[in-house]
Amino acid sequence: MAAPSESPRPQPAPAGEWPGVSIVMPVLNEENHLRTAVAHVLAQEYPGRLELLMAMGPSTDRTNDVAAEIVRSDERVRCIDNPAGTTGAGLNLGLREALYDVIVRVDGHAMLPTDYVRVAVETLSRTGADNVGGVMAAEGVTDFQRAVATAMTSRLGVGQARFHVGGHEGPVETVYLGVFRRSALERVGGYDETFLRAQDWELNHRIRSTGGTVWFTPALHVSYRPRSTVRALGRQYRDYGRWRRVVMTRHRGTANLRYLAPPLAVVAVAAGTVAGVAGFRPGFLAPLGYAAGVVGGSLVSGRGLPWRSRAWLPVVFATMHGSWGVGFLLSPRALRTMLAGGDAPAQTGPR
Prior knowledge:
The structure is a single chain. By secondary structure, the protein is an alpha/beta fold. The protein has 14 helices and eight strands. Strand 2 (50-56), helix 2 and strand 3 form a beta-alpha-beta unit. The longest helix is centred in the last third of the chain and has 23 residues, at 307-329. The chain is globular, with a radius of gyration of 21 Å.
């Protein structure tokens, strides 16, 4: 299905006003969420000019029909074709087509609060940062999703990352989504399209490596709907672990305990179980200890949740930890070799 045709390009804002903002949204199979995501973008209470660029991948549902209706209804919205369908490619295409010097990265199922762009632009100006972002506010609807949302905002589930658990304002390694100075994205060549996951962390690493600052502020919140099944959650965290190892291979010295804890836990639980079954009974202390920690952590983290969600929490924590750890340990050697150091393909983003 072909992507919807473009609407006319908006004109630049006069000098001295709030800077114009280009919001770039990669879109693929978002029929059920696109209208809501776009409505939140267009409801921004921002004094400057704003455009929305939807980078349309080859969707197999009615996403393109929905996008065509949106384009016809608001002149601030344009569509660009993203035949690769990947997030990095869509963001780079949007950057090339963007009219303005502030670039907002948003997903086709994210829900921005009405003050998001204004607060982000104020923070860019106040801090001099190259990229600012805030809290990935996971919000569940079903009992399972509520459990996932709780795990994704707890230190037991995701470690100390401020964009997950909150915290004080200041420089960080990475943020959720991001509001960028266009000059910073062009300085580092945009997103590396060879990364199908972890592309935000990898991009922010290059921004920081070239002297830029990535800034977290708790004043920014973006609502996020977690995965709705154990299987989908497992795939998501398996891919996170797999691509985290690729990032570590490409960028030596970026490993830390937060990223290594899940694979270490998987190895310890597996080795302890094998040893116990083989007759070394103390080996069972590893899986039993992990299980006790997860159950105890669930009791603490799940305070205030409905009992059905609390019952899901140990399963959710174990799925997140185990899937990340297995993905990290089994990250394909060919993928890591291809993307490592001098063997990596040239970046295809803007220069």
